[in-house]
Input
Amino acid sequence: MKKHLRLLFFAAVLVPCAVLAVLAVRAIDREEAFLEKRLQGALDVELTHAVSMMQDEIRRMGDELTTTAPAEAGSDPRAALAGWKKMSPLVGVPFLLSADFRILWPTRDSFLARSDLSFLNWNREFVTDLKPTPIFQNVALLYRDQIHEPPATLGKGGGAGEIDAKEKTAAPDSSTRGAAPVATPRLLSAPPAAKTQASENKAVQTALAKVSEIQQDQQALAEFEQNDAARKRVYDEAAKKGQKAETRTVSPGAGFQLKADAGANRPESIYISEPKRFSEVTAGREEGLIPRFIEDKLTLLFWKRQASGRIVGCVVEDAAAKSRLLGRLPAVYSPARILTVLDENGRPLVIPEGGSTRDWRRPLLAREVSEILPRWEAAAYPADPGALASQARGTRLLMGILIAGMFVVIAASGTVILNTLRSEMVLARQKTTFVTNVSHELKTPLTSIRMFSEMLKEGRQPDAEKQRTYLGLMVSETERLTRLINNVLDFSKMEKGKRTYSKMRLDAGLLAEAVVENERIRLEQAGFSVAFANAAGPAVVEADAEALRQALLNLLSNAEKYSLSIKSIDVEIRRTDGSIRIEVKDRGIGIPPAEAGKIFKEFYRLDRSLTARVPGSGLGLTIARRIARDLGGDIECLPRDGGGSVFRIILPEAKPR
Ligand code: ADP
Output
């Protein structure tokens, strides 16, 4: 039954609780993931916007340089170039090339500023078409048509040739391509072919074609971003053609402390580089911006073809370009996030106050800015990276505590319920046994009384001595009956709290002696040796004489009932620490120490073969203890040296008057 109950308890309560707990934890995880996604989504929108703003600014700067660049430097290029530099703060070091890429200005033989010298130093070989420089292209747009195609059909139409063709048609200037997923409109002016189209129809068609082109670009970028397989395919294809995939300067996704390891590897850049000569870059185009890494520092070269075929250009002024780009950024700092731009070396262009200790290369989210600004990243960080993590930890902890608390409460209340049930069942069983025992106890003395009284009535025992003995036995059996009935009645009174005591000053020694003497004949007839000793002298206590007598009788009755071979009862009176002790000692079967506390419980009987044979209600000690306590004392049960038990009633000694 116990096992059954436990199983039922587990199945009905703990299992659903465990399931609930698991569901709760999952819900938290999902909620966290959802919040994170939402934050990322919001940041992504901001970053995309920031990137498109910067791309727009790059286009504007290109336009500005194009319109301000001297149309024809004429015979005095120096003055025209100086005028250009004066006019536009974007112009750093202007230069002029002949149609066959000879440097016309700055020349080594003229008086040169240090900036001119440095220009020649770093760019001469490139602009004179002697050495190529890595040119960056958006790989997703470069291989746009192949992103959707299965790998088997990749490369159809002849590899590099096809790319070249595409560059010349679909991508007239690689530098005009936008960063993922924002496909910017053409950065600079359209190729000359478009300008010559006179028919309006044609213009509309061209515009429509452009729109669809942009749409396709955007689709390709989105697909490239989401489809790992397509991405891998495209990078592999680029690698086959010797185009180098750059590694990004940041590891996005590392903003949350919870995922400290996430994004530890830097992903590949969407911009691949391929060495190209100046003649290749400028072929078929009118103007452009070329990013160059000079000693790890990004420099922009602007160029424009003049009517004569000469090429005028400049190194773009770094500080001016940066300040214009930053001018288009949204607020760097908001309570939720930090949004900034990292330069080619992963350093933020603007550092918000107090954010300088951050690992800038590990943003939550980042977007590459443009192929004109390779390695630049628009990056977003949680304003307080610890806050999100600690909030998540806090929620988890709280949930953990709640779940643990719930388990503890359920387990505790379950245990209490189980125990209550068990003790109720035990009590019910004890009550049944009690009824059987009491009936038995009533029956035994009644039988003897009836037997002796019938014998006396019928005059079957003429011996006067024997007749007296019979009468004596009848009296003591009647007393036993009375005691039993008193016990039962008293117990029910005590249960209802209705038992009253009439306390008076009395000598407990005298009272105990009287009780012992009263029982002596019967006990001795039953083979007991009975001894009484009073070491206390007058032992005055405040007590109800009848109740105290009843308690003592119960103890004596037990000493008699639970003695087997050695039938000896000692009653002693002592005085210790202001209390009077009445001890009833026997040499009976004794009580195991573990049971000593339990025997005072109502209906409790030791589970022994002897107890089973001895009639009893399980109430004797309960009542004795209740009386002792009601009289301001207590009762103890101790093992007796040499075997047997000692029951000790302790009562406070009354103060002398
Ligand atoms: P009962 O009517 O069974 O005697 P009690 O409340 O007087 O009820 O005693 C409770 C149990 O304590 C008894 O059943 C018995 O097992 C044990 N007990 C009481 N007194 C003694 C004793 N003197 N020696 C051994 N066991 C005892």
Observations:
- The domain at 388-496 is CATH 1.10.287.130 (Helix Hairpins).
- The two ends are 60 Å apart (CA to CA).
- Residues 554, 558-559, 561-562, 586, 588-589, 591, 599, 604-606, 611, 616-622, 645 surround adenosine-5'-diphosphate (CB under 6 Å).
- The chain has a mean pLDDT of 83.
